[in-house]
Specification:
Blueprint lengths: L8 E2 L4 E3 L7 E3 L12 E6 L1 H11 L4 E6 L6 E3 L2 E7 L7 E6 L4 E4 L21 E6 L11 H14 L4 E5 L5 H11 L6 E3 L4 H9 L7 E3 L12 E4 L7 H4 L4 E6 L6 H6 L4 E3 L7 H11 L3 E7 L1 H10 L3 E4 L10
Parallel strand pairs: 2-3, 3-4, 4-5, 9-10, 10-17, 11-14, 11-15, 12-13, 12-14, 15-16, 17-18
Antiparallel strand pairs: 1-2, 6-7, 7-8, 8-9
Helix pairs in contact: 2-3
The structure holds zinc ion.
Zinc ion (ZN) binds next to loops.
């Protein structure tokens, strides 16, 4: 392939996509830490990705930032670069690279199901598709997120002497769970761990409905009885969590499909809510993109590769290291 190599490096413009080490020029798909790092000289990304990176890593986390709007191409040397919504988190983008000979699309992390907290996924036709495969096994068919959130609302209704402590990633999943609760008519105050505060404020400033959020502190920590408390998964077993009202442990994650994972983490109410494409979204996106060649960046690569080959699509697993098992 001429435009991009297997390390997602575009040699003719000396730029990397989602590099883990500091580089001169980086194009960033989205602001999760396994894709967006501090310390690059020049960053090209959507305005939301740049804003979220600055919130997480500081205003000076890169020397120069260039924001690119979705669907507005720029030309660097002879490469045309266009960003399209990836539907994963706020600001997440697929990157389409084109020269005279070929089109290459890097999906980054993505999902195709509707989500009011993101710019929804847009299907893009391409010659080569470079896709993730976090949930690249046929056992992964994510249920309707509204049905999952209703389980939480119902459990809160019938167990109002305890609090429901929900493990969520701070960027993206937390705001999606809150928005789903609001969409399903849950109007109570929602308590949040301090780690969720800044990003949630940013989502609210972008007109995403999160309703009334209250940060947990030492004064209100006992007011959580009958309420929903959101915290990063790592905080679920903290001293912090033991100070809350007695809690039912919940987790919102695509991995909750795997009962063993829920059990290991002592999760009593697993909610299968994922910000990644499931097997059916992965395979239908590959089909609908009309790609003749697929590179799989990370995740469950083997099954997806086999599926491609069976469907007469060239496929290769890149096994990029350093990508998380985020959900
Ligand atoms: Zn991600």
């Amino acid at each position: 392939m001429s435009i991009l190599n297997r390390s997602l490096y575009i040699s003719c413009i000396n730029s990397y996509i989602d590099p883990l080490k500091p580089v001169d020029k980086a194009i960033i798909t989205h602001a999760h830490a396994d894709h967006a790092r501090a310390g690059h000289k020049n960053i090209l990304a959507t305005q939301d990705t740049i804003n979220i990176m600055k919130i997480r890593y500081g205003e000076k986390c890169a020397t120069n930032f260039q924001a690119l709007a979705y669907g507005t191409p720029i030309f660097i040397n002879n490469i045309k670069i266009t960003l399209y919504p990836a539907g994963h988190i706020l600001g997440s983008a697929q990157i389409l690279l084109e020269d005279k000979k070929e089109r290459v699309l890097v999906t980054g992390d993505y999902k195709t199901v509707e989500d009011d907290t993101v710019q929804n996924f847009q299907l893009v036709e391409t010659d080569t598709l470079i896709t993730e495969a976090t949930f690249g096994l046929p056992i992964f068919k994510h249920p309707n997120p509204n049905d999952e959130i209703k389980k939480l609302i119902k459990s809160v209704k019938y167990n109002n002497s305890i609090c429901h402590l929900v493990g969520v990633y701070a960027l993206g999943k937390a705001q999606r769970v809150i928005n789903l609760l609001r969409k399903n008519n849950y109007d109570e105050v929602i308590y949040i761990h301090g780690a969720l505060e800044k990003i949630s404020k940013y989502y609210s400033s972008r007109n995403i409905n999160l309703g009334r959020l209250v940060k947990i502190n030492m004064k209100n920590i006992n007011d959580t009885k009958g309420k929903i408390v959101l915290a990063p998964p790592s905080a679920l077993k903290d001293k912090w969590a033991r100070k809350l009202a007695p809690a039912k442990m919940c987790m919102a994650s695509g991995w909750m499909t795997v009962k063993q994972r829920a059990k290991q983490r002592l999760i009593e109410l697993p909610l299968v809510i994922s910000d990644h494409a499931d097997w059916f979204e992965l395979t239908s996106t590959i089909s609908n993109s009309n790609a003749s060649k697929v590179w799989i960046t990370h995740g469950r690569e083997d099954a997806l590769k086999y599926w491609c080959l069976k469907n007469n699509i060239q496929a290769e697993a890149l096994s990029l290291y350093g990508r998380d098992e985020e959900d």
